[in-house]
Every structure is written in C-alpha cells, then in structure tokens.
Design brief:
Elements lengths: L11 H20 L5 H7 L10 H24 L1 H20 L4 H29 L2 H32 L3 H21 L14 H12 L2 H30 L6 H26 L1 H23 L6 H27 L6 H25 L6 H22 L5
Helix pairs in contact: 1-5, 1-6, 1-7, 3-4, 3-5, 3-13, 4-5, 4-7, 6-10, 8-13, 9-12, 9-13, 9-14, 10-11, 10-12, 11-12, 11-14
C-alpha cells in the first residue's frame, strides 16, 4: 500500500500545489525582499551599512527556533492547528515589519515571520508523509519540489514589481495576502491527516532526548554540522548578493541575474535526484565540496592578480551554487540515516541545529562585504574547507 486513505482527500494535483505553496512561502519571504534592501536601508537610516543584511539573517534565526518546536507540536495538537498557529505568527510578523520605523523593530518582525514560517515548511513534509509512502511519496515530493524551484527564480521580480508601483512596505502586504490565501485554502480544502488517537503528548524532554542522540552520533552530528556550514555559505550569499550587483553597477539586472542563479541551484537538485542512485550520496557530497573548494581557491588566487569583473564573478556564483544545490538534500539525508527510529522529530531538529549553526557564520560572511565579491568568495573557500575536514572526521568513525 503506497497511499493512505482519508475520508475526504483532495485531488493530488491540488494537494501538490498547496504543499508547494506552503514550502515556497519561505523562499518568497526571503527573495522578494532582496531588491528592496537599499530602499529599506534608507527608510531605516541604515544607508551604506551592512547591518541591513540582518533582515535576511533574522528570518533564518526564526526558522531555526520554529523548526525545533513545530514537529513535536503538530504530533500533539494535529497538523492543521499547528499550521494555523504558524501562519498567524507569520502574518503578525509581516504587520510588525510593515510599520517598522527602526531596524530593531524590523528585525523583531522578521524573527516572528521566521518562527511562523517554520510551521508550513516542516508540517507540509509531515502531511505528505501522513498521506503517502514509498514510490508514491517520492513522486509527490518530486512534483512539489519542481514547483518550489520556480519560486526563488521569480520572487525578486515580484518584489521589484511591487517597487515599481509602491514602496517596500507593500512587499510585506503582498506576503500577508499570500499567507491568507494559503491559510484559507488549507483550512477549507486540506483534511486533518493525524487522527486524535495517534497524537502524542508534547514534551521538551523528547526534543532534548533526540538532540542528545544527534550529538552522540558522529555521523548524524557531523553531517548536521556540514549542512550548517553549507547553509552559512548560502546565507552569506543571500545577505550580500544585492549589494554585489549594486557595487558592480548592475543593480538594474538584479532580478534576472538572481533568477538565473536560482535556476542553476534548482537544476542541481533535479540532477541530484537522477544520479544519486547511481553514485550515492557520500560520493556526490565529496565531489561537490571538492569542486566548491577548488573553484573558490582559484578565484581568490585570480583576484590577487587582477580585478574580477562582474561576469567573471557571476560565473563563480553559477558554478559554486550549483555545487551547493547538489549538497542540500544529500547532507540532510545523510544526517538522518542513523535517526530512522525518530525520523519525524529528527528531521526537524537536524534542520533546526544546522540553521542555528549557519546564522552566526552567515552573518559574519555577509557583514564582511567591502564593496567587492572577495569576502563572499573567501567565505565559500573557508566553509568548504571546514566541511571537507568534517567529512574526514566522519570517515574516521568508519561510517563516512
């Protein structure tokens, strides 16, 4: 049996579209704001300061906090109430950011948005797992991810479109409207998938028990740390990429340039789905990290001889982020391999812990921006090297 019966299931196409929208709200909330960062900086008296990057980083911090809680919470109160709570917190966070006049208020709103977003992001996976299994589940997840990949490519253009007609505050209004649409759609069309008799009491003790299991297992801990290092690279990129386009005098093509890079990340994920059964996750991780290190080192060496022009830097981002796209899914899957007995909460906590690792390092990479791409390339180099070292440490256990 590969799919599980519900009393009133919705059509598969509608279910896939709804789950993709729930997952994509995270990307939309990050990437749609990127074109507006300079305007927000002026409004909040932070023009010319790297501090404005914290608008991106703070949402990731909220995601880390939320991921730690929602998996267990949804096992206790059901999937639908947990999603309602998350979308409500996200909506309130958007309101706080909409009315923000100073950076701390903006960051508080972004933190609240991140905590709220963790619910649809995490629980959508639980909903798929509740209703499908085996090859059918894999097929549904593939369809969801195919739709999800499109959103990061178009989100900056949506944000730029809002800026043509209104100021940056209306991007938060747009995000609020999308959240309300998802809430109404989810409320009236998606049935509850976790019956009352299958629910488990909420327990912080259970959370800490699984964290201790992750920390006590070299494979789980090692790959979680590597996932955090790779996420640091990605967060540093997201935080400073708009400033890099602006510094090179190419701000007007930011939306299109970012879309091209995002599509390369998505294409890497699709390629990985095709080759992972042939080559294996560990092989792909080692090759991708090795390529990331070599490309970063090569570019840093080139920068010592001559100034890197814009298109040369863009080639670096395309190659490097293609490698990052190969890494994301594999690293999380490898971290989860020893945690099959606690797969649900284990997945949430691996995601949470890796995000907690990524936030301070991603902020450090982003705040190092000096008007060139060199600090970001250096960040790619350092964290790919640290990741390779961690892979070696995992292998010392005889399990890597």
């Amino acid at each position: 049996m590969q799919s599980k019966k519900l009393a009133y299931p919705i059509p598969v196409f509608e279910f896939v579209s709804l789950m993709a929208m729930m997952m994509a709200l995270v990307a939309l909330s990050i990437d749609s704001l990127l074109p507006a960062l300079p305007e927000i900086a002026v409004s909040l008296d932070k023009a010319g300061s790297n501090d404005i990057q914290l608008i991106i980083s703070m949402l990731f911090l909220g995601l880390a906090v939320g991921q730690m809680v929602y998996g267990t919470l949804s096992d206790f109160i059901g999937r639908k109430p947990a999603v309602y709570l998350g979308l409500l917190l996200f909506f309130l966070g958007c309101l706080v950011s909409f009315f923000a006049e100073i950076l701390p208020m903006m960051l508080a709103g972004r933190l609240l948005q991140g905590i709220g977003l963790a619910a649809p992001r995490i629980i959508s996976i639980a909903l798929i797992r509740d209703q499908y299994e085996g090859a059918v589940m894999a097929k549904v997840m593939s369809f969801v991810m195919s739709i999800f990949i499109i959103v990061p490519a178009i989100a900056p253009a949506l944000g730029q479109g809002v800026l043509f007609f209104a100021n940056w505050r209306f991007i938060f209004l747009l995000l609020s409207i999308v959240a309300v649409i998802i809430l109404v759609w989810f409320m009236f069309r998606q049935p509850e998938t976790l019956e009352a008799e299958k629910r488990m009491p909420f327990s912080f003790g259970r959370i800490f028990k699984v964290i201790s299991q992750i920390c006590g297992n070299r494979v789980a801990l090692g790959y979680t740390i590597v996932a955090g290092f790779v996420s640091s690279i990605f967060l540093g990129f997201l935080s400073s990429i708009q400033q890099i386009f602006e510094a090179y005098g190419e701000a007007e093509i930011f939306a299109g340039g970012f879309a091209a890079i995002a599509l390369f990340i998505g294409s890497a994920s699709l390629l990985n789905a095709k080759i992972v059964m042939l080559k294996g996750m560990r092989y792909i991780v080692k090759v991708a990290l090795g390529m990331l290190f070599i490309v970063s080192l090569t570019y840093l060496m080139l920068s010592t001889f001559d100034h890197l022009d814009f298109w040369v830097v863009m080639v670096f981002f395309v190659i490097s982020l293609f490698c990052v796209g190969l890494l994301f899914g594999n690293l999380n899957a490898l971290a989860m391999e020893p945690l099959g007995h606690v797969a649900g909460i284990g997945s949430s906590l691996v995601g949470s812990l890796s995000t907690f690792i990524s936030v301070p390092f991603g902020i450090l990479i982003g705040l190092s921006f000096n008007g060139t791409a060199i600090p970001l390339i250096a960040g790619f180099l350092v964290f790919s090297l640290l990741s390779l070292g961690m892979i070696f440490w995992i292998g010392k256990a005889g399990k890597g």
